[in-house]
């Protein structure tokens, strides 16, 4: 395999992880999990979905591959990116399904993770998509390995983390994450998705807590505030698209404008809205702006799958943590029938676990 510094043609797709369409599920694509290993032995889990040239998606500050795939808005968004691309997403060490680490230089760690994931998938040249904290990290990689990046797409990113929020607010939020991770996840959700409904807010707060423990969340958030890629911008040679919402509450538009101004021939797309999470709010506009940056055509909106009323009842009980026996007693059905309902739900939604069903239910249900 050629090194990352060489300008080689990229493979058509990550063939090792190709899956034929089943035709039985309502989702457009499925994801398949893989694993890479860092030099110190830390396992990094990644997910592959779709077909076509490889696009590696760098996560925001925390992530969980399986629980994120269970969130309808997130899954539909990633499926859109995976239409025409082999989309590769990963959990960085300390998050989601990946192994824990004692390393605290998050930026250097991330560079090793990107290299390990690309090697595991079998590509030397790929598209790079960075959202939120993933955007400055993508800039750092593209500057240090310019010939490895075919297209660079940056959403909701920044040049200098010190400009994201005043020092007092940064210290307050970091302290809150340390002292009360539950409350902090609620506060951050309000900042990241101020216009989301109650179900989405409840889901995303829980998602953040289940993606990383408080101590590691603090380390990652501090790295968000500390990173500065101002000296990297001029070294980027890949065609670059910068996308930002006009009134983003988490990251000021001025930082997106700095990204675009500092990268040669970069384009800037400013979309209405104040939501930071790309798959919340008018996510379809963000999706098509990203697809444009990848050289892909726009997509029409697609409706997510729905369950029958009985399946929705069962999903609600799964979300409470009930066993098949408890569900059968509550609904006055046999335990085997309850098990069949759960299996049909998982098959219809393309899920692997009851935890994903629970996450899906919370995200799609109104919460008082």
Features:
single chain; alpha/beta; Rossmann fold; 2 domains; 14 helices; disordered N terminus
Q: What does this protein look like?
A:
This protein has 14 helices and eight strands. Helix content is 43%, strand content 13%. The chain folds into two domains: 15-293, Rossmann fold (3-Layer(aba) Sandwich); 309-364, Winged helix-like DNA-binding domain superfamily/Winged helix DNA-binding domain (Arc Repressor Mutant, subunit A, Orthogonal Bundle). The protein is globular and about 65 Å long. α6 (181-192) packs across α7. β1 (31-37) and β2 (43-50) form a beta hairpin. The protein has helices at 65-69, 72-81, 106-121, 134-144, 167-179, 181-192, 198-211, 214-226, 253-262, 283-293, 309-319, 324-331, 335-349, 354-364; strands at residues 31-37, 43-50, 54-58, 86-90, 126-131, 149-155, 240-245, 267-271. The chain is an alpha/beta fold and 368 residues long. Strands 1-2-4-3-5-6-7-8 form an eight-stranded mixed β-sheet, sandwiched between helices. Residues 300-365 form the HTH luxR-type domain. InterPro entries: AB_hydrolase, AB_hydrolase_1, AB_hydrolase_fold, Sig_transdc_resp-reg_C-effctor, Tscrpt_reg_LuxR_C, WH-like_DNA-bd_sf.
């Amino acid at each position: 395999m050629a090194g990352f510094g060489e300008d080689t043609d990229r493979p058509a797709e990550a063939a090792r992880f190709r899956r034929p369409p089943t035709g039985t599920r309502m989702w457009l694509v499925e994801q398949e999990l893989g694993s890479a290993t860092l030099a110190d032995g830390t396992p990094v889990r990644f997910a592959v979905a779709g077909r076509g040239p490889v696009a590696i998606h760098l996560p925001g500050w925390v992530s969980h591959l399986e629980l994120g795939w269970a969130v309808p808005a997130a899954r539909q968004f990633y499926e859109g990116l995976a239409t025409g691309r082999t989309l590769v997403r990963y959990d960085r060490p300390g998050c989601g399904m990946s192994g824990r680490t004692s390393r605290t230089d998050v930026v250097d760690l991330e560079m090793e993770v990107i290299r390990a994931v690309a090697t595991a998938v079998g590509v030397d040249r790929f598209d790079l998509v960075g959202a939120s904290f993933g955007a400055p990290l993508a800039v750092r990689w593209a500057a240090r390995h310019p010939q490895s990046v075919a297209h660079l797409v940056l959403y909701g990113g920044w040049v200098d983390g010190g400009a994201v929020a005043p020092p007092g607010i940064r210290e307050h939020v970091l302290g809150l994450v340390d002292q009360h991770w539950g409350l902090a996840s609620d506060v951050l959700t309000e900042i990241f998705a101020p216009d989301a409904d109650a179900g989405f807010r409840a889901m995303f707060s829980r998602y953040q807590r289940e993606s990383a423990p408080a101590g590691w969340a603090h380390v990652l958030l501090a790295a968000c505030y500390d990173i500065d890629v101002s000296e990297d911008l001029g070294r980027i040679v890949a065609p670059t698209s910068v996308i930002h919402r006009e009134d983003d509450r988490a990251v000021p538009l001025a930082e997106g404008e700095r990204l675009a101004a500092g990268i040669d021939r970069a384009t800037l797309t400013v979309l209405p809205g104040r939501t930071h999470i790309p798959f919340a709010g008018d996510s379809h506009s963000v999706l098509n702006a990203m697809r444009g940056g990848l050289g892909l055509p726009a997509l029409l909106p697609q409706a997510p799958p729905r369950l029958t009323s009985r399946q929705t009842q069962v999903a609600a009980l799964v979300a409470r943590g009930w066993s098949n026996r408890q569900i059968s007693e509550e609904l006055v059905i046999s335990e085997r029938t309850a098990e069949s309902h759960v299996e049909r739900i998982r098959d219809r939604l393309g899920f692997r676990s009851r935890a994903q069903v629970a996450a899906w239910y919370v995200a799609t249900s109104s919460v008082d």
